[in-house]
Design a protein that fits this description.
Strand content: 25-35%
Helix content: 25-40%
Distance between the termini: 28 Å
Shape: globular
Structural class: alpha/beta
Radius of gyration: 15 Å
Number of helices: 6
Number of domains: 1
Number of strands: 12
Length: 180
C-alpha cells in the first residue's frame, strides 16, 4: 500500500440549492435488506466500468461483501462521529486529500483520473467527503457506477452516463471545459 498527500484545491461552494438537491436520492435506492441485490448489480456494473463508493459505511459494506471498489472515498466519520471501519490495506494507493465542508474540490477530478491506473485507490478526506461524489462522476467513464449512503434509508446507486455527468455539471454551474 502506497500513501500520498495531495494539497491541490480548486473549490466550488455548494449552494443551499445544491445541498437540497443532493439530499434526495439521485439514483436507485437499495434498502438495508437489498444488499445482495446491490452487490449483484455492482458486479454487473464492473463488467462495463468502475465501481466507486463514497462514505465509510458504504465502503465497509462493499469490502465485507468481498467487493473492493476501484475508487473509495472516506473521511473516518459516520454521522459526525469518528469511526475506523475501512481497512486501508485493501487498497493499492491511499491519498490524503482536503475537501472543505460545503464545498466541492474540483482539483480532485484530475487527481482521480491520474491515479485510476493504481486502483483500487482510496481518497481519505480531511473535511467532508459527501460532495466528493461530484469529482468521481466527472473523472469516471460512462458505464461506471457510484454508490453512496442515504442516511437512515439505505444505499444509492448511480449509473454514470452522459446525462448524469451533465446533471452534475449543471447542478454545480459548470461547463465541461472547466473540468480540466
Amino acid at each position: 500500500m502506497q500513501l500520498k498527500y495531495f494539497k491541490g484545491t480548486r473549490y466550488i461552494k455548494a449552494s443551499k440549492d445544491v445541498r437540497e438537491k443532493v439530499s434526495a436520492p439521485l439514483g436507485k435506492l437499495y434498502r438495508p435488506d437489498e444488499i445482495d441485490k446491490l452487490i449483484n448489480d455492482l458486479v454487473d456494473c464492473r463488467r462495463h466500468g468502475l465501481i466507486a463508493s463514497v462514505g465509510d459505511r458504504v465502503t465497509y459494506t462493499l469490502i465485507e461483501n468481498n467487493l473492493i471498489p476501484d475508487i473509495a472515498v472516506i473521511d473516518g466519520k459516520e454521522r459526525r462521529r469518528e469511526v475506523d471501519l475501512v481497512d486501508l490495506k485493501k487498497f493499492n494507493l491511499v491519498i490524503f486529500v482536503e475537501n472543505k465542508p460545503g464545498y466541492v474540490n474540483i482539483a480532485l477530478v484530475n487527481l482521480i483520473r491520474r491515479h485510476l491506473k493504481d486502483r483500487p485507490i482510496l481518497l481519505y478526506v480531511k473535511g467532508e467527503e459527501d460532495l466528493v461524489g461530484f469529482p468521481i462522476v466527472f473523472a469516471c467513464d460512462v458505464g461506471s457506477c457510484m454508490i453512496y449512503g442515504q442516511p437512515n434509508i439505505g444505499i444509492v446507486l448511480i449509473n454514470i452516463d452522459d446525462k448524469v455527468k451533465y446533471m452534475a455539471a449543471s447542478i454545480l454551474g459548470l461547463s465541461g471545459s472547466s473540468l480540466g
